[in-house]
């Protein structure tokens, strides 16, 4: 535990150093002077847009859950808790998705395999829509401004690769039972190592459990209709276009309007950078450097690019950190209260108070 804390502190320090160096090179006081001219009304509108995008993400996932599914309020709560997990434990969204699966399983009557299937398809669909929107933004960039061949080739390659990998992932999820033999082989080779830590380990039982798990997961994936996947995809595509409005409005509020298609392209690439599991909580410093570099690459002046980046991060990171941390804390307190209430009601559920007293008397020999 001490090692984990020390590593976390080191990574926080690394992020702080990167952010400090970033502010130094872009010109801290110039950035401050530019930010002073921010229109607060546009800043509030940017926050509203961010809340809308979080809701769209939660609703698109809700459509992929099997009936009875999850309430809209609960889906938003689960997504916010997962966002907090991603920010605090930067593992390329793995930590957040594990939290989403765990919490959603508790809040619904669904089996964990069904929730896992919905989260996986949602994540793969998000990747595919990433590639689609990137393709649209590249076409519009070509139509509205000059784009050099190297950048164009990079954009096309990344978009095509993400779409291909996303489609391959969905295909693998639908046919996951074909990996039964591979799972059996892996368990057989690992059996000796596992028995060193758990002497009672049964290879046959483990193989049976894995096979049943794969069958349940495949069945859950196949139960998600194409119509629901298309509906979720439409909402995620809309989310990509809407979320780019945040930095776009920030540029307007600073008195330096920028191309929407340029801002959309940068927003998409920055979201890809955020998926890299570097280990710095919130990717502080790394995200600022990446976003500012992309903006400068499109011809934006350094201090303007840095100002827009910092303001965008205030909304899309610090504001989200505040509401997600508050939601996670509230959820933890709510669970404690439910557990306490269940403990108080336990005697009533198992019988009345008189029957409990009777049991106690029998234990002591008094009837």
What does this structure look like?
It contains 15 helices and no strands. With 367 residues, it is mainly alpha-helical. It has one domain. α4 runs antiparallel to α5 and α12 runs antiparallel to α13.
Q: How many structural domains are formed by the residues? A: 1
> Strand percentage, roughly?
under 5%
- Cα-to-Cα separation, first versus last residue: 51 Å
**Strand segment count:** 0
The main β sheet shows up as: none
- The rounded Rg comes to 25 Å
Helix content: over 70%
Order of helices and strands: HHHHHHHHHHHHHHH
**Overall 3D form:** globular
SS summary, helix count: 15
Which helices and strands occur, and which strands form pairs?
Layout lengths: L1 H25 L1 H8 L4 H23 L9 H17 L5 H14 L4 H33 L4 H26 L5 H18 L5 H20 L3 H18 L1 H9 L6 H15 L11 H12 L4 H49 L2 H11 L4
Give a brief rundown of this model.
With 367 residues, the protein is mostly helical. It has helices spanning 2-26, 28-35, 40-62, 72-88, 94-107, 112-144, 149-174, 180-197, 203-222, 226-243, 245-253, 260-274, 286-297, 302-350, 353-363.
What keyword list fits this structure?
367 residues; mainly alpha; 15 helices; 0% strand; disordered C terminus
